[in-house]
Amino acid sequence: QVQLVESGGGLVQAGGSLRLSCAASGRTVSVRGMGWFRQAPGKERGFVAAITWSGGNTAYADSVQGRFTISRDNAKNTVYLQMSSLKPEDTALYSCAARPSLYGNSIPRAEIAYAYWGQGTQVTVSS
Questions:
Q1: How far apart are the C-alpha atoms of 72 and 61, rounded to whole Å?
Q2: 86 Cβ contact partners less than 8 Å away, ≥ 6 residues apart
Q3: Structure confidence at residue 101 (pLDDT)
Q4: What value does the mean pLDDT of the chain take?
Q5: Which residues pair with 25 in a beta bridge?
Q6: In angstroms, rounded to a whole number, what is the distance separating the alpha carbons of residues 50 and 67?
Q7: pLDDT digits (tens, 9 = 90+) for 90-120
Q8: If we measure between CA atoms, which residue out of 125, 95, 91 comes closest to residue 11?
Q9: Which of 63, 96, 117, 83 is nearest to 10 (CA)?
């Protein structure tokens, strides 16, 4: 089992920045990649960004490309999501997820690929 704990959420004005962190513990040797998803009120949870644990390859949703950056610190078993130029539509509960399976050179964006989930951290962007 892998446990994930997110932090760094909060209230920020439009145009501002936040950095989310996700610390993994437990059987972290089994982790092959991690990702961030978000769910806004009244909407389904959707993919934001993901990173492979070994090579650091990344993938982003079109809506955050160029504004968000995902990174990882293998020594700390932590993944980060640096969010800049935030918009009110970025308001959501952001959840971290980890996957134990490899997908070749591709990075899965579907929730079903991720076996472990954190509780989430709320990000609210005011206009």
A1: 18
A2: 12, 14, 15, 16, 17, 18, 67, 123, 125
A3: 82
A4: 95
A5: 3
A6: 14
A7: 999 999 999 998 777 789 999 999 999 999 9
A8: 125
A9: 83
